[in-house]
Every structure is written in C-alpha cells, then in structure tokens.
C-alpha cells in the first residue's frame, strides 16, 4: 500500500466557537476533493442530524468514506450536538483544519468548513422549505428560519405587532419584512422613532395639524398615521413615549380614527401598527411608567428577534455581506477572521459587527481584512467599554514579537501585556516567524510556539493541544 504524502506542516491549535442556544437543525455536508487547485471529485451531499456522529476516513467501514489518498483510514469524527458541531482528529497523518488552522479538537457552529487531506467538507444548516430568510436579512441559521416562519404567519394579519430584541439585532428589518410579506406591501411603510420625538411636536408628528394650530404652523401637515394610510406604521423605541402621548395613542388605536391638532373633525385611517422595543416593557408597566392597556393593545402579536450570539452560523455570511457593502475597497476576509468573529458575544449585535469590520479595514488598509486587524478593533472596543482610552494601536511585527518573547524568557502573557496586544496575536506572529529567514532559527521559534513549559511567576507559555 502506498503511503500517502505528508501535507505541509501547520502549527497545531485548538479552536472553539461559541454555539447557538435553543435552535437545532440537521446539517448538510457538501464534499469536494481538489488536486493542484482544481476540483477532482464532488460527492453527493450527506445529512448529519442532531445527536448523530460520523467517523470520516478512507476505510470502507467508516460512516463517511473519502477516496482521497491524503486521508487516513480513520481520520476524524464529526458530532452534531444540536446547536453546534464538534470535530475530533483521530490521530490522522495529515491533520484536520478549521479556518486554516490545524486542530486536535474544535467546536464550531452549524455553518463552516473542515478540511481533511485534499477534501473540503462544507457544512450548512439544512433549512426546511418555508423557512427562508426574511427580505433584507442575511443568514441561513435555524434561528433565522424560525423567525422567518413566524413573520410570514403574522404578515397577513391586521392586528398590531410588537417586535422585541436587543439593540442592533435588526428589529426594523423585521418590521419591514412584516410589511413586505403581507397584503400591504405596495402601500407606504412609515417609520418613526419615539425617542426622537420633540415633546412639543410629538402629537403633531403622529396625528398631524391644521394651519394655525400653533405658532409656526404655516400650513396643514399630515401626521405619520395619515402618511401610512393603507400601509404600515412602524413606531420604534415604544418605551420612550411620554405618558400624555400614551393616553392619546391608546384612544387612536382603539377608535381607528384621529383628530389633527387645530381641527374638530375626526379622520379615519387604515394602518397596521408595528412597534418595537429593546426594553422590558412589563417591568415599566409594573412600575407605572407605561400604560398596561396600551401595552395589551399593541402586543397582540409578539415577534422576538434572536441576538447574534444565538445564531453564530450567520456571522460568516453576514460579515461577507457587510464587507461587500462597506465602501472601503475590501474584497474579502483573511484566514481565521470568521472563526474569531464567531467567538465574540456581540452585545451590539449586527451593528457592532459592522462597526468592528469597518474599523479593522481602516486599521490595516488592503484587499482583505486580516485577523490581526480585527483583534485590534475588538481590543479597542473592549478598552472603550472599560472606560480606558481606545486610540489606534499599531500592528505588531514578526521581529518585534520574537524579540518580546525572548526578553520575557518565553512568558507569552508578559510579552503580550508589554506589547499591548492579545496573546492570540502574539502567537500568530511567532508562527509566521517560522517561515521568515531573517528571524531566529526554527528551533528557537519552535520553542516559543509550542514546547516551552509554564514559567515561574504564573505566566503562560505557548503550549497548545497537539495532534499526532
């Protein structure tokens, strides 16, 4: 039997990507084998269901057999844990790669890719029919599919809808989807932010006014209700409505007619009301800060938008979509960027993801966004949250990384603190040093990137879980 050739060695690493919570879906695996950069073979897609596992290899008895001479007889095991996948290298000859890094064990979301030998296993959720993403929303996660199914059931109704979700999660996009997926799609969609309404003009903005109704009212003006006639009125930041306006809004919603300021005639309207909030309105109702009767009127249909951390498999397509529309001349995401993004908690959700990508592109101009630039942007935001200055941070060079670790006797924690960069950035620079002829000998750099024991003083060396 011919011994398969060894692939180019790659530093070992352990990857972990935070899984979603509460949503489970089968995963479809598309398999492609390449030789010299060209597609050599495509296999029929396979379906891995929650609770199932595959042993991947070239042996006839394995669950997923690959006719790839660079794949070991029992190469790796892929397990579906419901909200996340786990891959385990079974002591393969050529290793398992996730995001360009060789891993011994990795936990990843339901969308991504695993490379074994010359074969790429592309994974994505198997979305059931009727669970397509909503108009304007990007992603193929089970969470987004459930949201789409709920919105499509609510869209034909005329009853008010309340959209709940964290800031930056896409509540206005969901409101527009409710409008576009329903019978009012060709009628106006009027959006109004309750937090931006000036106290003296809020009633006029909502209900309109007649000429002479107050000082400066030089002409008649239609309010938001009348401008949205036949369509949808989206009222964002519902909890910001002042108490006096809450009472007037309740009456308008109940009677389906309004009286503009300066008029004594009521006007009927045909509007579907969609509201949104990121606040716990029930607590405000209990505290007497929001009318219970208005809340019950507007919360006939509640749609909850999942935060980005509960659908990490959407981060890759979202990031690529945001990069294409960032107007910064960036064409792609560099190696390891998607895996790094998927590990973040994203308290600001999609809005924060967009801002991090833009900041990373500005920190390191080029045709792609690199992992180092993303780490710098994330660290700057972390320092801002902690109340420390978040000025621009220079990117650490390979030579500087090697020198810093040498100065600290291999203590990576101390070296990263001195440089003001994350430990992962320092590791990346040291691994890159192995391929640069001007850096220290491979033995000395290798000691820094995997074989140094923990040093005195509690510092961390660069020891990682190894594969055979």
Describe the fold and architecture.
- The chain is of the alpha/beta class and 468 residues long.
- The protein is 31% helix and 21% strand.
- It contains 15 helices and 20 strands.
- It has helices at residues 142-154, 171-180, 202-207, 224-227, 243-255, 281-286, 292-298, 315-324, 337-342, 349-363, 371-385, 398-407, 412-419, 423-433, 442-451, and strands at residues 12-16, 27-35, 38-48, 53-57, 64-65, 76-80, 85-89, 96-98, 101-108, 112-116, 119-125, 161-164, 189-193, 232-236, 257-258, 267-268, 272-277, 301-304, 332-333, 368-369.
- The strands form four sheets. Strands 1, 2, 3, 4, 5, 6, 7, 8, 9, 10 and 11 form an eleven-stranded mixed sheet that branches.
- A hairpin with a 2-residue loop joins strand 8 and strand 9.
- Helix 12 crosses helix 13 and helix 13 (412-419) crosses helix 14 (423-433).
- The radius of gyration is 28 Å and the shape is elongated.
- The model is unreliable at 1-23, 388-394 and 437-468 (pLDDT under 50).
